[in-house]
From TrEMBL:
Residues 35-51 have a biased composition (Low complexity). This is Aspartate-semialdehyde dehydrogenase. Residues 18-31 have a biased composition (Polar residues). Residues 18-51 are annotated as: Disordered.
């Protein structure tokens, strides 16, 4: 479908560039409301994300992945796997999207207390200062690693990926298989296959079921 192809072109534009990875700390090992996918990003050579903040704000691309996120700026793609320090992730995403983080906290989540940084259409989820999940609505310069973004319909997505509707108390919840064997989940609104995808998520999120 055209909508999916356009988004795919945006995300795949990051391919073929130099890739670096921020150094993640050890995982917390805490249980999650939504289990994080078993897939993790590749582990290229470690690099400091601080240099990314020197680029003009709002000129980057945020790539969402089942095992974390990545930010592409000035031809360099830097990965931030789950477990990366909050300061590094917030700084890079804020520079890429040209928006300041809006910080919130919830003390009562199924996985324990969580902190959140809302930056543009992306909400980054943290526990004990480490990235553990993300959720994204539709927005410019944001797409998954396989080229999917909110705004398309479930029918559009089914033409590209294998979609599974969740047995959930939350309306419109679904998941789809990423080509690397991992999964990304999301929510749609509207009836049937024509329902519009309004958000995508991966990792630990604070949902009340």
């Amino acid at each position: 479908m055209r909508a999916v192809a356009i988004v795919a072109a945006l995300a795949l534009a990051s391919c073929g560039t130099r890739e670096q990875s921020a150094e993640p700390s050890a995982q917390t090992g805490e249980a999650s409301v939504q289990p994080a996918s078993t897939g993790t990003p590749a582990e290229p050579a470690a690099a400091s994300p601080a240099a990314m903040t020197t680029a003009p704000a709002g000129t980057g691309l945020v790539v969402l992945d089942a095992g974390g996120i990545a930010v592409r700026m000035k031809g360099i793609r830097t990965a931030f796997p789950f477990g990366t320090d909050r300061t590094a992730v917030d700084s890079a995403v804020a520079a890429a999207l040209g928006a300041r983080p809006v910080l919130t906290r919830l003390g009562e989540c199924g996985a324990g207390a969580m902190e959140f940084s809302a930056i543009g259409p992306v909400k980054l989820n943290y526990q004990k200062g480490k990235l553990v999940g993300w959720m994204s609505e539709a927005g410019r310069n944001v797409a998954t690693s396989d080229g999917i973004a909110p705004g398309i319909t479930l029918d559009d997505l089914r033409h590209e990926r294998e979609v599974t509707l969740a047995r959930s108390t939350l309306p419109g919840e679904f998941s789809y298989a990423v080509p690397d064997g991992t999964t990304i989940s999301g929510f749609s609104e509207g009836a049937g296959a024509g329902g519009k995808i309004v958000s995508l998520y991966a990792g630990v999120n604070c949902f009340f079921r």
